[in-house]
Amino acid sequence: xxxxxxxxxxxxxxxxxxxxxxxxxxxxxxxxxxxxxxxxxxxxxxxxxxxxxxxxxxxxxxxxxxxxxxxxxxxxxxxxxxxxxxxxxxxxxxxxxxxxxxxxxxxxxxxxxxxxxxxxxxxxxxxxxxxxxxxxxxxxxxxxxxxxxxxxxxxxxxxxxxxxxxxxxxxxxxxxxxxxxxxxxxxxxxxxxxxxxxxxxxxx
Length: 204
Hints:
This protein is α+β, with helices and mostly antiparallel strands. It has 2 domains: about 1-75, Glutaredoxin, CATH 3.40.30; about 90-204, Glutathione S-transferase Yfyf (Class Pi), Chain A, domain 2 (Up-down Bundle), CATH 1.20.1050.10. It is built from 7 helices and 4 strands. The protein has a 4-stranded mixed β-sheet, covered by helices on one side.
């Protein structure tokens, strides 16, 4: 298998962390230069018409894009350790939190970066006001995450899951928009330090 990735991008890091947590090592990582437009070529567009990373290319030639879909594929081929949960209730809770993190934290952080930094101004029209609004939306999610982690060891309960992967990748990428949880978020800081001890954290 090949994983088309990009240094420092949160989506690819989510896939890399899942691979590391599963102990799957027979994957070639191909890093694309997004600033140079490696993801905009005709060749890559055939793998993912959305022109985004990560993309997991299987030995069959099938290409799976989107971190959530890659999570699902890895869980099916390597069930242990389970990152999507066991039992109906736990699986639903993990997916609920992973979707919340994507919609209310990861996406606003990404939109704030794109519309505030001008990094992709050669391929999009930045809207500064929208970037600022997305930054506010991302910051508004931190108290929600703090409240959850005050009640539980991990984001979706008492077991490590893909929700923790999505959360930590987003939290650390959010530094690029100067969003960092301070002392007013002790539970997030406790959880963050705990995740730094995991093998999967070391992929970046």
